[in-house]
Amino acid sequence: MEYIVRIGLETHVELITDSKMFCGCSTKFGAAPNTQTCPICLGHPGTLPVINKKAVDYTIKVALALNCEIANFTQFHRKNYFYPDLPKGYQISQYDLPVGLNGYLAIKLNGEVKRIGISRVHMEEDTAKLLHFGKTGRISEALGSGLDFNRCGIPLLEIVSAPDIKNVVEAKAYIILLKKLLEYLEVSDCNMEEGKFRIDTNISVRKIEDKYSKTRTELKNLNSFKFLEKGLMYEIERQKEILSKGKKLQLETRHFDSQTMTTKPMRIKEEAQDYRYFPEPDLVPIEISKEWVDEIKKTVPELPHIRADRIKKQYNISENEVEIITSTRSMADFFECCVKIYPHPKKISNWITGELLYLLNQELIQIKESKINPEHLVKMLKMMDIGSISGKIAKSIFKEMFKTGKMPEDIVEEKELKQISDIDKLSGIIDKVLKENSKAVEQYLLGKQQVFVFFVGQVMKKTKGRANPELVNELLRKKLK
Amino acid sequence: MGEERLYQLSVKNLMELLSKREVSTNEIIQDIIKRTKEVESVIKSYITIDISNANIQSKKIDNLISKRKELKPLTGIPIAIKDNICTSGIYTTCASQILKNYKPIYDAEVIKKIKNSNMIITGKTNMDEFAMGSSTENSSFWTTHNPWELNKVPGGSSGGSAAAVTVGEAPLALGSDTGGSIRQPAALCGVVGLKPTYGLVSRFGLIAFASSLDQIGSITRNVEDCALILNIIAGYDPLDSTSVLKEEEDYTDYLEENIKGLKIGLIKELMGEGIANSVKDSVYKAADILSSLGAFCEEVSLPSLEFALSAYYIIAPAEASSNLARYDGIRYGLRVKGTKSFRSMYRKTRSKGFGNEVKRRIMLGTYALSRGYYEAYYLQAQKVRTLIINDFRKVFKKFDVLISPTTPTVAFRIGNKFEDPLTMYLSDVCTIPVNLAGIPAISLPCGFDNNLPIGLQIIAPHFKEGLLIKTAYNFEKNFNFKLEPLYKKFRSK
Amino acid sequence: MEKISKEDVKHVAKLAELDISEDELAKFVNQLNIILKHAGKISMIDTTNVKATYHATHIINIFRDDIVKKSIDKEDALSNSSKVIDDLFEVPLIVEE
To answer: Looking at beta carbons, which residues of chain C come within 8 Å of B382?
Structure first.
């Protein structure tokens, strides 16, 4: 049986403005409960919202990067419904006049490019955080619930894709690219663990011959890649199975149960909420002029896929390496900064995709947060070029630079790591090694070639690894003749 | 003339006495307190009286006055505040059980301005619950009585403010006006009520009823006092996105006696069948007076006004149904305990906390916004609103101001219209169009019907409060209306 | 304009989180119908090509800068609530009915 699967992804992204969408409270993550609130975001009687301009700027920026048409005239609407995490009993959101419409995000799969339509990009405010007391923190086992309003009112971007996604692979590619894009635009840190990047999906599966089926399932809060993958896979299979038995699917909302790795029904979508949208009377409309759009356009950086292509061609770097280098904007900036002052892209790429990546992953930090900047790496490489440090030592110097942020020349001096290339000095040390190991010398002269390595090792030991390996080899051979 | 007490004096007079140091702030407050004790049990203007605080404030201000030569305008003047305006630390209930114990943690912008001017808040006045009503009978606490005749309503929803000013419990008061809630009680009580242009006065801290219609305004005993307080409360507020940035004005500049050549339009649609004859007569006489002062009065028609009431009773409840959704018992206000689920708590709390009129309007508003009905009701009503705005714009090309009755009748009996919402709504027919258009209007006394006051409404284009003040001032100077007889009525034995 | 039915009122009351008893229901249905009949007059006006007015002013583009202002103290934030646990606003169990 042939099935057609259509998946739409709806992402809610918290913007990294300093203050909330409609009031001046801080948006900093991790504060003690209810310490970042005010009468406005608590929804006290008599309070009024005022729009944070930066949030609008960021929304326009994202809409531009997603190739949307930017509305000339945009307006906030009230989305009316009751839920404890919604203090006003309505969310200030957007309805039929969003900031961005009809865009696309081009994903690359197996060398082929596919455009996933972006239906709309709009702004709204985040809700409060609902916490459940109880043993496991899950709703079904809660003894009670409590609300923390710190999150309430943080600017939220809603990005809705068209149902152009056909399978889990495409879904993952879309999310990965979207996250990367938003990170490049510096509008969100997209931290999924902190709830700053949330995914809901709409999935509809139908038999290929069933042209008119409109039934879709909404699957909420797939908040990690793993859940997204598992949830989609399970749901697609579940729907296929029901259809294969000749039954009909229900229009419903389900949630992903991470314990059982299955989806469970939440509420029947038939009784779909009537949000009674109407234009927000407390906020006057927004006219987005061409000048404003142009101003924002200037702040849109080279987008990740374009940058990746260019770096690949310009510097002749492999696909895999480019992937890593452009995984974040700051990584790509780091790379290109290095190349500018030290035009050896291959060398730089090796260090970035090798040692640097390893250390970043170990510490679980981004390059932005590390102590290393391009100057560190370039200076170190230059020192290697003139032979003042060996390749082996370089690795430990790099680790030290990463740990302390000190410049390579300072580390070398402090730890006396300068490569020894002084022939006389090396000769003296080699002589000493050979004198101390006369038995081994005899063995070598009798034909045991492997002992050579032992001598090199001993020289390295005595010089704490600083001896210039090529010279040591040369001198040793001479002396052993 | 008889012994005049401090509570009888206008704001202007009190200011003069204070600046001459002939009287102290504390003396004024003491007399206000005395007067309140004399009449409050019978009038019931207040929900919360703040006597001790007023006393303390007055002493602080007297201290301030003794140290300074120049006083900020309205320093030391007592003022009553309608109980839907947030006053930090003082109960602000909207006359509802759902906010019975609510003490705001912030001051409304207008309150900040009043405090900044060293005025003294006497207390929070009674009103129709959440400003929904035209008689103050919808208060969940008690009804306020019209000082002219105690078995009559004072009007609403700012009935408490109007009654307090009328009977001398405060020289002036703040109210709010969404469909006539300042002007109508002012008319029924024989005082001056001003609804400013939408956007002139900040709404931050005004507990919302219908966001696109609400405005804070004043109730005073004369036009001069009205100009004085308008100077204090008007002004752009960055916390209110709908407040307008404009050049500051001194509204007392308009207190000049000259309306020669002023073109006044008498609104035909508001002088028709539903208006009592006595009211019509008074308004015609008022037009004559204005003409005698050199103005040109002519009848004018605004056809779309016929639909204003209908449009209002869709728009206002719709916005209200959304504004009142925040009362869920979680962060403030009444909470019915012992429920298992949050929905159950919401329903029980809201059903217990809201009165019938509020419930009616919430349901009406929800219906008008709901799927399938939005276009026919809410959207259509907002289009009708445009037609009304256009009619006013057209007419203001020809006329400087417009006049009409403020209310179709004089004060009606308490209990008369209470059970019949539609009849109650009809009492707003003259005032509502003004809110829909967002333009300013003032009501001032222009006659009597059997000892009950009749109000004249003057309407001006956006931000032409000056014209209102000038026209009203001139009329006032040439029409004999005194509150003194009323004071005598409530003299303590 | 249509008349509002008992079912309509029940539905609308549910949307607005209001409990209406059976006795109240009849009264409300009646009152709402009277009001709606009157309000429904607006359907008689031709509003083709008329734009809706949602705001009484003509202002647009009112914003604030992205500057952090001091939040209120936690105690003040929680002060008006009748049930607080561990600095959180308590809510009865979230059970979808």
So the answer is: 52-54
